[in-house]
Amino acid sequence: AAAFVGRALRKTYVTGETQVHALRGVDLEIYAGEVLVLLGPSGSGKSTLLNIIGGLDRPTAGELWYGETELTALDDAALTRFRRANIGFVFQFYNLIPSLTAEENVRLVTDISDDPMHPADALDLVGLAERRTHFPAQLSGGEQQRVAVARAIAKRPGVLLCDEPTGALDSQTGIRVLETLAQANRELGTTLILITHNAGIAAMADRVFNFLDGQIASIAVNEKRISAS
Ligand code: ADP
Ligand code: ADP
């Protein structure tokens, strides 16, 4: 089943006299439950697409559908409701609130969600049950990122969007964070969309969209993973 379908998506940023064509006519299908990696040089449009899929930004032209819902036809309030109900975000820098414990950081999201996990269960799922009452400064970078993953999955989003989730971590720690994301994909059926420069992440993907100059230049399919599922 398709989670997202995009048709002729364009995004042009206008700053003063200059126009930047960040997306130049992108057609795409993203399948429910897949692990999809967006790969490509800096400036090729990956973050722009991720922000549009997550309802943080809008395309200049084109259509984007999430199941039966045309996201590009929603007003701002409806787009915010879509985002809160369906999308979890994990960014390179963990964006935890320093004055709140790990559990309180997760609770920020579960308190405003319809059918959330218990914050302690979300922390248990990322292997941090013992760190519930720790503050961010008392946690390693990898642990802080796993709290950010717990916060993102605690509302049971259908889709998890990750922009360089291991970019600030050493490779061993990054692998632990990746395993956590893969586990959410397996156990919760979460569609996982990741921007990365890390070859290890690309290897765990079902598919890779190779971006070049605002377009998807090619799509690589990982036959091993597809046939195993
Ligand atoms: P990537 O994630 O692949 O590095 P981006 O989607 O961030 O690429 O950027 C694509 C292009 O759009 C780049 O040329 C970038 O400088 C430009 N761009 C991104 N965001 C903005 C913005 N808010 N205003 C103006 N230009 C932007
Ligand atoms: P809400 O869904 O509560 O309205 P926002 O619209 O502020 O939240 O953003 C959605 C999520 O994306 C939040 O977790 C916010 O912190 C995060 N976010 C948005 N833009 C960025 C960014 N540029 N860098 C890091 N986090 C961001």
UniProtKB/TrEMBL annotation:
Gene3D superfamilies: P-loop containing nucleotide triphosphate hydrolases. Pfam families: ABC_tran. Residues 4-229 form the ABC transporter domain. The keyword Amino-acid biosynthesis does not apply. One of its GO terms (cellular component) is membrane protein complex. InterPro entries: AAA+_ATPase, ABC_transporter-like_ATP-bd, ABC_transporter-like_CS, MacB-like_ATP-bd, P-loop_NTPase. CDD domains: ABC_MJ0796_LolCDE_FtsE (cd03255). GO terms for molecular function: ATP binding; ATP hydrolysis activity; transmembrane transporter activity. Keywords: ATP-binding, Cell inner membrane, Cell membrane, Membrane, Nucleotide-binding, Transport. Belongs to the ABC transporter superfamily. Macrolide exporter (TC 3.A.1.122) family. This is ATP-binding cassette domain-containing protein.
